[in-house]
Design brief:
It is a single chain. The longest helix is centred in the first third of the chain and has 22 residues, at 32-53. The chain contains nine helices and five strands. The chain is mostly helical and 250 residues long. It has helices at residues 6-19, 32-53, 55-61, 63-76, 87-97, 109-123, 193-202, 209-220, 226-242, and strands spanning 144-147, 151-156, 174-180, 186-191, 245-249. The strands form two sheets. The protein has a three-stranded antiparallel beta sheet. It has a two-stranded antiparallel ribbon with strand order 1-5.
């Protein structure tokens, strides 16, 4: 650092103070009031983008823990994108890869953050362009079901969709289906473990509904796959009506 030109040393000191004013001194010669206003403005700008995506996480943590978390993100994380819309993506990466577990934070912090982030991720996804040819009224058992490409088949350790401030929840395997419908609304549906596994088997579009059921029956230790056919048919038809399944492939 000492070998850098003076103006670059100043720039590093300036940005270090903005990121973490509690740990980095204000550069010599800067006005304290103006520096404080600038530091507050940039922090508030970052926080506003995070609040828009993670309102429940903010409420669950409370103002102090939330502020410490945002400050740690602002101080430590080096974003790989210049787009403000992707700040929540960077925040999630920070939680997954850089944020050490804190005793004061709930065990479900990362899962809750991911659950809130997925709505933004799917709302701006372009994975539905273009779609392959398919039959909207096709047979979902004998044919190969086409899942909505803007879809996330999720499994969590906690019921993240029920988390609220001052509400204790037990660790419970939770399976959620999140997708964007034809009206561009992001929808959330709770499903069973069997329903989630069925969709996972169909996700690549290579199996017919019957083939997926046969594999599911094998995994569940059931000798007769026909017992699961009606369950699969009902589940897939419900998802077709909602827009999570689009039809069947030729």
């Amino acid at each position: 650092m000492d070998k850098l030109p003076a103006f670059q040393q100043y720039q590093y000191a300036f940005t270090a103070h903005i990121r973490d004013p509690g740990s980095n001194r204000r550069p010599a010669g800067t006005d304290a009031r103006r520096m404080g206003a600038y530091t507050e403005l940039l922090y508030n700008n970052i926080e506003s983008f995070l609040l828009a995506c993670f309102p429940v996480l903010r409420k669950v943590l409370g103002s102090r823990k939330w502020a410490r978390l945002v400050r740690a993100f602002f101080a430590r994380h080096r974003s790989r994108t210049p787009y403000f819309r992707q700040i929540p993506d960077e925040f999630l990466q920070f939680l997954q890869n850089e944020w050490p577990p804190q005793e004061a934070c709930p065990d479900y912090l990362l899962e809750l953050a991911h659950y809130e982030w997925i709505e933004l991720a799917l709302s701006v996804s372009n994975r539905d362009e273009p779609l392959p040819e398919f039959d909207p009224a096709g047979d979902l058992i004998e044919g190969r079901p086409l899942l909505n490409p803007v879809l996330a088949n999720l499994a969590y350790r906690y019921p993240v969709h029920r988390l609220r401030p001052r509400v204790k929840v037990a660790q419970t395997p939770t399976y959620l289906l999140v997708f964007r419908d034809t009206e561009l609304r992001v929808r959330f549906m709770e499903q069973s473990a069997a329903g989630a596994r069925l969709l996972a088997l169909l996700e690549d579009g290579q199996r017919s509904g019957r083939e997926a059921v046969a594999q599911l029956a094998k995994e569940l230790g059931q000798d007769n796959p026909n017992r699961l056919i009606e369950f699969a048919r009902g589940h897939l038809e419900e998802l077709r009506a909602a827009g999570a399944v689009l039809g069947s492939l030729p």
